[in-house]
Amino acid sequence: MSLATITAASLPPQVYSHAPEHNVELTADPTHWRPVQGIGTGWVKPRGGTGLWTSPVIAWTEDGTPADSAWLGWCRAETGADTSGQMLTEILPISNARLLLIDAQDHLTAIVATYPAEPNRFLPHRHGRYPDWEALAADSWDGVYLTDRGQWATRMPRSGPDLYGWDLESMLWLRPAYMVGRTVLSAAADSAGVA
């Protein structure tokens, strides 16, 4: 079974959403990279605080600056969060980044078949079938891109592995195969619709 990929040039523009006090230099400097770690058994996401999560830009200002992200939109819609004070930092993949694509259930199934994590005995109903995130990074995969269609296809499939909990189109960077662009104040509206 072959693995689906996406080229760096085809990846939608990505931003890292963060609080103003976050030191962007930590994201930009590979010496501060937090390698992806599993949790010992298969799990839908790697250990918190490892790797880097980004999401697509969903709105732009008139001058072409990112104004909003899929992550901030999800936070407003699902939690009622006020995202108006959040910062957006552009994450630009290097041209030869090795990026896996999940746009359908069989894409995830192929990843799990090739890089299976140790089964999670606490999730017998799901068979604990998840990718081994550390093994993916060790084999020089730089990231995993989940499209919106892939998110719905892997949310609660009738059988096979799932990514329930990713919740939105997003990119999990397994290795720092990117450059950092501009950091700007989000122009996103808060949950009440006020920018």
Please tell me about this protein's structure.
This protein is of the alpha+beta class. The chain has one domain. It contains 5 helices and 9 strands; from the N terminus they run ββαββαββααβαββ. Strands 1, 2, 3, 4, 5, 6, 7, 8 and 9 form a 9-stranded mixed beta sheet that branches. β3 (52-60) and β4 (66-69) form a beta hairpin.
Mean pLDDT, to the nearest integer, reads 89
What gap, in angstroms, lies between the N and C termini? 47 Å
Radius of gyration, taken over Cα atoms and rounded to an integer in Å: 17 Å
Percent of residues in beta strands?
A: 15-25%
Secondary-structure element order, N to C: EEHEEHEEHHEHEE
Number of domains: 1
* DSSP, total strands: 9
Shape: globular
